[in-house]
Amino acid sequence: MMNCILLADGSRVNVGDMIGNGMDGFIIRKGCHVLKIPHLYENIHPDGTVEPCSENWLNVGRLEIEMQVYERLRGVPGVAECIEYTSNAILLQHYPNGSLRDYMAEHEPPPLHRRLNWVLQATDIIARCHEKGVLVFDIATRNFVLTDDLDLRIIDFSNSSLLPLSEDINRAAVDGSTVRVDLLHLSSVIYSIMSWQPFSVDCAMESEWPPIDQIPELKGLEYGQVVYKCWTRIYTGIQEMVVELRMCARTSSSTGPFEQ
Length: 260
Known about the structure:
One of its GO terms (molecular function) is ATP binding. Residues 13-260 form the Protein kinase domain. The chain has two domains: 2-93, Phosphorylase Kinase, domain 1 (2-Layer Sandwich), CATH 3.30.200; 100-255, Transferase(Phosphotransferase), domain 1 (Orthogonal Bundle), CATH 1.10.510. Helix content is 33%, strand content 17%. It has six helices and twelve strands. α3 (112-131) runs antiparallel to α4 (179-195), α3 packs antiparallel against α6 and α4 packs antiparallel against α5.
């Protein structure tokens, strides 16, 4: 039995055009843009009969949610540019410099001011998403891409939650996902940038919160106190975190790194 990759309308994909395979979808190069399509397969049996995989409906649903999120975030600074979307795919701007994760693997640590700026950019981007009622969830170095000027743009909202704009996002919980979970994952990005070592934590909901002994070593780390407060759930919303980060950025040269 063989697997073939499908578009949502049932047509097959030329696997030679595929440039990425994420957790929730495939990335297909299309000129100066990329198409994101959901993970859809059909099984081709030895007798020639074709059967769609049973999980396909779930991945189509995720694509529909992601389309709604991109529409809500249209024009928001720091969000990857969404050109258009159809029932089959989301057409996005292509960022040739790739993801922050790949950049970290291929380059030595850039100057401190560049890394400090990335931390502020990443936090501001998530703050804007929260202002628009979006719990992002998949906040990771693989989901920040770099522009030609090496500024950050966030991609991948397939596991995000879209809340009514009238709802207080700081009090919301969607299948266990909360603002504090977003801040936990954001703190992993901050740690990765400042230490130049990939780090992530497995936490899909507050009930799965990791024990404090899993926190990475923060001694001597710029912004370490911010990472610590995310892990210990001190912040009630991202704006508190933004304020502290900006205070730390203004005084980093004089106050030095975090000492626990």
